[in-house]
Structure formats: structure tokens, C-alpha cells
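Appendix B. Raw example, untouched.
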Amino acid sequence: MHPENASRRRLLIAGAAGLAAATALPGLAHARGSDAVEPDIDSTADWVARAPRGTISLLPYRPSRIVVHHTVSTNSSDFSRAQAHAHAHWVQDLHLDKNRWVDTGYHFLVSRGGWITEGRHGSLRALTGGRNFVLGSHTSGQNDYAVGIACEGAYHAGAVPPDAQWDVLVALCAYTCARYGIPSTQLYGHKDYGATLCPGVYHDLLPRLREEVAAARGA
């Protein structure tokens, strides 16, 4: 693992455990309140996203759950921030040009190197505010109830998520649950709501994800 990513991963782990060291390195992660660490999230402006194709709908209430996905992209060995931005572009291009959606369907994406990018415009601002959220396009029947978080890569049988991705997914889910008041038990996979293999092995890891998110919030 690249030293930069290793340091960042250790910081997020420390922050999730509620350690004061989480504020030691500005720009990576910091405490917000007593039960969550705010992870470093690159906004659509940071990765220079394309403009939405139409109006982004802001819903005047909080979501009640999180739905985890995988993007079925290449399992890249490039763990850099630049790769995370390139992946965000790849997803947005797919959703805009092939699916003909208004914007990226997911609210957030987690790269294999542990970098988080905002997906649909407005998602980060809504999350930070904690009172409303953006209508997504990630799970049929759940887009107006659930935050969609997609993990870079294809996690079919035998695939193993990188540690950096897993740790940051835990941190992002814990922060999202804290900001929106979502119980740690309300984390699901795409296949819970439709005939799909998504999110692959991540679905088998949901019990562990719920436990680690609860521990991160309660530390």
C-alpha cells in the first residue's frame, strides 16, 4: 500500500475509535460531535464532475437506511486519489451517457485506495447539514429513502475488498448514520431490493459492516 494511503487508513481507524489523534492531520478526517468522525470526502467540484443533465431533487427529510453497491469496474491496483477521481468520472459518464440519468446515481463512491468521492451533486452538502438528502438513482424503490454508497471494483465470488476500502466504507457509513440518525442495523445491499448480484461479496460482509459501524459510533 502506498505510504500516503496507509497513513490515511490508520488515521480513519483512530478516528473511528474516538481517539483525539484523529484531528492531528488536517484535511484527512476530524471529529464532528461525539459519535462520528467526518471522513475526507472529495466533492464533485474537487474531481471536476460534469454538470447534471437536469434538476437535482432535494428531499425535505432524512433518509432511513444505506444501500451498499459495487460498481463492477476493474479491480485496479492503483490506490491513488487520481484513480478515485478517474473512477468517479467513469461512473458519471456511464450514468449520464448510457443510462441517460440526470447525474451519477450513487450519492457517494469509495475507491479501492480508500478515497471517497461525492457522486450525485448536492449529496455532500445535504449530508453535512443532516436534515435532508438528494434523490438518488441507485436502487429501484429505495431512491427516496436510502443513501447509495458504491464501492469501486467487481466483488464477485472470491474477490476480496482492499483493507483501505473497507475501513473507509465503515467510516463513511458511521458518519452518515450519525448525521442522519440512521440505526447501524439499517445497512443493506442492492440485492436486498431486487434481482441483482450487487454488491457481490460485500453483501456477505453486511453483518460485519453493521457491527463495525456500531462500534465506530459508540467508541
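End of appendix B.
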